[in-house]
Every structure is written in structure tokens, then in C-alpha cells.
């Protein structure tokens, strides 16, 4: 844990459905068991989420599929990063990945979510928030089985789109080769 460091990470940049979630986190005390959220099972992520919330200052930003379609993923990412930096005052910021989306004073580090505790914590906050949202969406749109694929373009998800068309939480600006010849109605 580094004092005065805000770790930032996202979840949901790649899926074809659901929210983009970006989290910033400043740890106020040490939290055991932190790691890249993708390397932790769901039960461990959920438990750590509650511990992180109690032991940090954090800010979470979400963009809907419609906002992503209307603005583009890069604009949404930049807006989220700037909002986090505005709401979490810190000496240093570190974003997981290799691009800072044009924000000059935002350093990046590839795989920081597995190396730097503050970024690991942000990774967990973002992933748990994303997954909770899409599991909630699965109740509204059960035919898509979002709880199984979390919005990613798996074979099951593509089959459900072929069968039912797109729903409100699908990112229509994301093109899938498997759907190139498909003309489907939207459900909203």
C-alpha cells in the first residue's frame, strides 16, 4: 500500500452487453488477499468488495450500453477517469493498462491490477459492480442468460442474440462477425 495513491481500473470494456464500470480507490489501511479481480473467484471478490468499501475512499463511475453507443467507449473511459480524478484528490494516480485516454497526468501500468494493491482494489470494486449489475439485468432479460457470460460475446450469448435480437442493454455499436449477416429486431 502506497500512501496518497489512487488506483484505477475498469470492468466491462469488452462485453457486448451491460455497463462499463470504472473504479478509483485510495486504501486507508492494508487489505489482505488483494489481486487482479479476474484471478479471484466470485466468492472471494464479493468478500473483498465489502472489506475494501470499509477501508478506502473510492469512486465508481458507470456508463450504460446506450451511453457507450452514443459516445464511444474511449470518450466514456476518458470521462470516467476525469470524474474519478476530480472526486478522489490524491498525490498520485495509476491506471491499469497501456493507455491513459489522453489524460497527460495519468500514469499507466500493464497488469497493475495484479501488482499494486490500490489498483487491485479498484479492479475488484469495478468487477463486482459490473457483475452485480448484469446479474440484475439477467432477471429483466432471462432469455439471454447474462448470469452465465456476463455480457461477453460467447457462443451462448451470440445464439441468444440470433434467437431473440438485441435488448436494451446490448451495445449495438459493437460488431460481431458471427452476426454480420443477421438482421434482428430490437426488443425495446
Automatic annotation (TrEMBL):
Cofactor note: Manganese or magnesium. Binds 1 divalent metal ion per monomer in the absence of substrate. May bind a second metal ion after substrate binding.
Binding site for a divalent metal cation: 9-10, 96
Cofactor: Mn(2+); Mg(2+)
Locations listed in the record: Cytoplasm
Enzyme class name: hydrolase
GO annotation terms (biological process): DNA replication, removal of RNA primer; mismatch repair
Gene3D superfamilies in the record: Ribonuclease H-like superfamily/Ribonuclease H (3.30.420.10)
EC number of the protein: 3.1.26.4
GO cellular component: cytoplasm; ribonuclease H2 complex
Protein family according to the UniProt entry: Belongs to the RNase HII family. RnhC subfamily.
Name of the featured protein: Ribonuclease
Organism (species): Sulfurimonas denitrificans (strain ATCC 33889 / DSM 1251) (Thiomicrospira denitrificans (strain ATCC 33889 / DSM 1251))
Amino acid at each position: 500500500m502506497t500512501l496518497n495513491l489512487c488506483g484505477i481500473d475498469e470492468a466491462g470494456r469488452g462485453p457486448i452487453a451491460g455497463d462499463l464500470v470504472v473504479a478509483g480507490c485510495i486504501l486507508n489501511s492494508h487489505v489482505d488477499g488483494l489481486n487482479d479481480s479476474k484471478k479471484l473467484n466470485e466468492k472471494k471478490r464479493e468478500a473483498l468488495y465489502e472489506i475494501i468499501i470499509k477501508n478506502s475512499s473510492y469512486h465508481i463511475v458507470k456508463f450504460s450500453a446506450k451511453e457507450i453507443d452514443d459516445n464511444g467507449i474511449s470518450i466514456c473511459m476518458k470521462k470516467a477517469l476525469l470524474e474519478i480524478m476530480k472526486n478522489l484528490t490524491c498525490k498520485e494516480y495509476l491506471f491499469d493498462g497501456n493507455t491513459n485516454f489522453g489524460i497527460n497526468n495519468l500514469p499507466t501500468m500493464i497488469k497493475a491490477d495484479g501488482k499494486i494493491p490500490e489498483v487491485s482494489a479498484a479492479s475488484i470494486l469495478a468487477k463486482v459492480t459490473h457483475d452485480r449489475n448484469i446479474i440484475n439485468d439477467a432477471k429483466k432479460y432471462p432469455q439471454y442468460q447474462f448470469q452465465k457470460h456476463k455480457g461477453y460475446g460467447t457462443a451462448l450469448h451470440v445464439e441468444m442474440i440470433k434467437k431473440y435480437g438485441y435488448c436494451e442493454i446490448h451495445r449495438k455499436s459493437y460488431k460481431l462477425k458471427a452476426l454480420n449477416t443477421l438482421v434482428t429486431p430490437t426488443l425495446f
